[in-house]
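CORE FACILITY INTAKE
Project code: CF-77B
Contact: R.S. (postdoc)
Sample description: multi-component assembly, three entities in total
Requested service: structural model of the whole complex
Turnaround: standard
Below are the sequence entries exactly as provided by the requester. Do not edit them.
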Amino acid sequence: MFNLPIEGEELFALEFGDIVNYFSLYTTTLFLFATAFIIIAIIARPERQTDIVFGTDAVYTKEINQDNLRFQRFMAIACGLATLGAVSSGDLFNFSLFTALIGITNIGIVAGVNNRYVLNAAYNYGIVAMVATTFLFGGASIALGTCGTLSIWELAGKGLVPLAAKMFLVLGVMGEGMAPFYIAKAEITRAPGAPYVLMIHVSSLLIFLRVIEIILTV
Amino acid sequence: MDFYQAGLFCTLVCVAISFIALFRERDDIHKILVVDLVETTGLVLICLVATDLAEALILPGLVVGISELLMLAELYIRKEKLPLPSFKPIKIEVMRTAPPIISFVLVVYGIILSGFSGGAVAGIGLVFYFLCKGYEERFELLETVSGYAWALWIAAFFIFMILPQAWLIAVMLSGGAILVKVTTKMALIGTMREGHNV
Amino acid sequence: MIRHIGKGFRIFSNWMSTYENLVAVYAALGIIVAVCGILMVPMLSYHEDQLYPKTMNRASTLDPYDRGGVPFTRAEIKAQYLDNSPTAGYVTTYLTPLSWFLANTTPYIGTTIVAHPGGIIDEILYNTRGLDTVVETSILFAAFAIASFLFRRKD
């Protein structure tokens, strides 16, 4: 599979029984990118949003609850780790599970915020993320049914995976990563806690790049 | 058209129908119910493969659905700022005397069963105990315990991968972890009454 | 005519930009993809050579979950990469003492066999595809953490 144009060279393979993670030039790039953002989330202090009081010159800084901050940081790091797993996974079902984990932790990042609009958007996003697992698992299982295997190593370059399974996978990732519908996402990023909230964008960007690699490879 | 294709055809029709339901639904709480319907069709897609592997893959699929449901329901309560119901506990003699014995029997039986359904049985015992007796701040304890179960599971996984000879220990660790995990999740229901009014 | 199209387009773009309609937008996409899937069903034929095929032995006391082999011996399983899991097959045959006793005395153990450690499902979930289970538990753990965080907040 490593002679395909999109993958680049094989650098490293990590074997976990039937699931063999691989690090090609492409996935390693994504992996390093995700690692950099995890480090940022660990070391950065959150931004402090300022509000202007209407009609006056007064400006005040929003207080960020300590509990909330720690929880957001925990979820952001968990989301980063899930992204690491998703970009290096060598198995279709394992990839979809990691993507589902990204969807859940994304909601967790903003769930502690005490703002009705943010919570409303997060709720709608949560419903979409939940529905999207149908397509993720459905795509993986159709690939299993028609090809007899889930391992990307076996499927690579043969073009066996039917178009329907690929469409299902992409739509599933669209739901989890929330990519083309930015409506709720813009609403969600109104939540305070900038470096952690940004993890939502980074993870969805990276799983999108990964799913494109998968559907071009298999 | 073989059996797989016929099954796939029917399931995809079901998927389309359940998405039409989701498309037409406007009420937030009803959306959760419809989402459950949609998820079930996803599990059917896995079932259609009909091998032992598919049977094993259903479990993660099911767990993902359930855990997202748990989280979304809590998010909904928080979003709508719904108050916890406050009511006077029922005064029944049995509810004061029976819990220790019944819970003890159920927990021991659950541990003997071990594995997933063992966890469920032991969990029911604890639910009953917490519901009748009432405990404050058990929530955090349960959270910690489920954290330990998670760590046990990871340890078992690495034993399988690095020391395959010790497979029996790893199976026992995983079996113990799933027992603890399911038990804590079930026992959670019993503590959802906010201490004081019990 | 053009005015009508413009009006319709404005209504549509207003509808798209309200986040309450997000679920409906995704559901519409879902319907389209599901219908595409239905149209493609004739191309999706079942691959006969599957991993971990299901075998039924109606005479066995372990009936729906009979996996062959005696405890502490190795059963033949059809994994993807057998080299990566050298002890695959041992968990498949394992029975706890209690379930061993039940299997030898009653014909009913098959109905609760998944409740006991050991067996082909555990082999797949813990050993050969262990990473799946790790992720699954992490998902449950994350969701549980979120739910309990939301529940414990007092403000």
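Facility notes:
- Chain B has two domains: 3-80, 93-197.
- Chain B has eight helices and no strands.
Invoice: internal transfer
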